[in-house]
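yo, Condensation domain-containing protein is done. seq:
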Amino acid sequence: MFLGTVGDWSAQGDVVCWYPTPKTYARAAEAEFHPAPVSYQQSQHLNYYRRQVSRGRDIPRLCIGAWEINGICDIDAMTNAVNSHVRRHDTYHDRFAFYDNEILRYVITDPGDITLAPTGLGTMTPAEIRKLLLDTPDPLQWDCFTFGIIQGDDRFTVYIAIDHLRADGMSAGVIFLDIQTAYFTALQSAQIEHKPVTSHREYSANQRAYTASLNEESPEIQSWRAFLAANKGALPKFPLELGEATADTPGAIDVFDLIDADQGRRFEATCRAAGARFSGGVFACAALAEHRLTGAATYFGLTPFDNRRDCAHAITVGWLASFVPLMIPTAGASFAQVANAAQASFDSNTVLGAVPFYHLLETPGQSSDSIEVPDRPVPMLSYIDIRKLPFGESFDGLRVGIWGDNRLSETVCMWVNRMHDRTQLVVAYPGTDVARRSILRYAEAMRAEFARASDGAEPHIDS
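structure:
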């Protein structure tokens, strides 16, 4: 698997892109108002985009993916696959617009009214292809998605660029499975039997209905408020300096190897002995690295939580990921103690995945005035065992790539990915010189913690 910014990706050849037909654009323009509220995640994304544009800035907003298929692309079969995918998932059927400060939803009620048709763009250079992806329309446009292929001599690359409004990281795997399955089924002139897909629109409505049923005495609200109060009323921040970014500062993504496969097995054994899983060990390393860098006695962090754990949403494309908080004491503790506490913090807080912290920021309450409302996205640390993803064992052969869009990021997002041969740390951050030095320091500290745990070393850290 390849990771990085789209600037690191190089592909060239004859390009075909699937665009909505004129009739489809006309239908999207006439989309009907729908009362289902926008999800919290989508609301924050749209508001942040609008705010940044008013400041002359853009935001990192695209989920970009690519994979290879041997042979010459059958354009008719791929047309069938792309249209089947887009019609199947209602995340592509809706568009959003601001009315004053309210976000309204408009819906193409009949998915059959949506048709994407292939357009040959000729031979393109890597730079031209990257620009094609980055030119994917913004989230206030209905067609904020791009599908296409790049034909080489004996194989072709399928690429997607989907605005985050319509997809989260796990959606990339669902999109891959949908298109891959539909393409090969069409090649065989067979009829694909799709499993029913749960509506993302309904997910959004249910999310809002659930949070509306909560009050200040609800355990979920009290847990979020306790987390924020312990961190002096603020959401977590990256512990090192990032420098001052300008509108012209690009986003950056760096990839660091943490441990190899053998170390990964030993690291997992150390975690198990401490009563934690690999994920708990990852959070423990982050907490200990921050303690060594800053002296912080408690680690406060946010990690993405995939609400597809509800099996009804397992194959839904959309932004279903939210955050759960982590509060991990580190002062004077061994790795085993920190890993155990990290796992307990994560496991006990997964229920908060159904209650985005944005709800607290939008809801008046007796403690609301004490919450520091962020004006930019918050930093996060994610862990994914890529080996367990569908087709995960085949990713190297398919030359799968996941790419960031290298627009300015005002925060730090981190992904620890366990693969068959190594565990890596991927960091997206504002591309200033100060941030680059800080990220290098942080990555080195993380690597050292992983190495210590892999070697079974459990030195206590002075408080």
